[in-house]
Fold:
Amino acid sequence: MTWILPPPPQPFLYVAGQSDLFAVRRIWCVGRNYAAHALEMGSDPTREPPFFFAKPGDAIVPALPDGAVTVHYPPKTANLHHEIELVVAIGTGGRNIPHMDALRHVFGYAVGLDLTRRDLQAAAKKLAQPWEMAKGFDASAPCSALLPADRWPDHSARIELDVNGQRRQEAALSEMIWPVADVIAHLSLYVSLEPGDLIFTGTPEGVAALVPGDVAVACVTGLPELTVRIAASEAP
Ligand code: MN
Structure:
C-alpha cells in the first residue's frame, strides 16, 4: 500500500540536550487558568472554572534551544495578542488519569505563545461561535525546546514575557487555578491523552498586541527561552 499524496510533515519540538526530536500530535489549550487574566477578559474566575480548546498540531513553530523563531503577522486580524504559557508535553498517554499519577505522564516542559487573533475571538464570543479561527491559525503556537521533566523540578518558577525589552506579562506558576496535575487529570476525563500531545496551560494577565517588528522573549525559570520575531504579513 502507498499513499495517494505524500504524508504530511510531522510537527515536532526540539529537546534540550539531545538530538532526538519530540513528535507533536495534538495541541490542547487551557482557557482562563489565572484569575487575574480571567478578570482582564471580563469573566469571573470564582464562577467559571478553566476550560479547554485546541489548535491543530501543525500550528507549532519549533525553536531550537535558546534560538529565535519568526512568525509572520497573520491574515484577517488587526489585533494579534501574545499569551505566554507553560507547555506540558505528554510522554505516556491515558484516560481518567488520577491526579496523584498525573505528573508521571509528562515527558517534559517548554514555554510557548498561544498567539490569538483577539478581534476574531471577541466577535466569536459575541455570536456564541467557536474560537478556532481566533486560536487555531497557521503558526499560532511558537514553542521553545522541551526540557525533560526530571531536569525541571521547580514548579514554583516564574513565567515572564518581555516585548522589545519591556515587561508585558509576569506571574508565578503557582498562581495557576489548575496546576499541571489538575490540568492533566481534568483533560483526560474528556479525551484520551496520547504521547505527543502538548498542553498549553493558560496565560497570566497582561495580554496585549504584537505588531510587525516586535521581538517577544518568553521565559519560564529553568526552561529553554523562546524568542519570537513578528515579521510583516506574508505576500498573498
Ligand atoms: Mn491561552
Observations:
- The first helix runs from residue 35 to 40.
- Residues 15 and 146 are 5 Å apart (CA to CA).
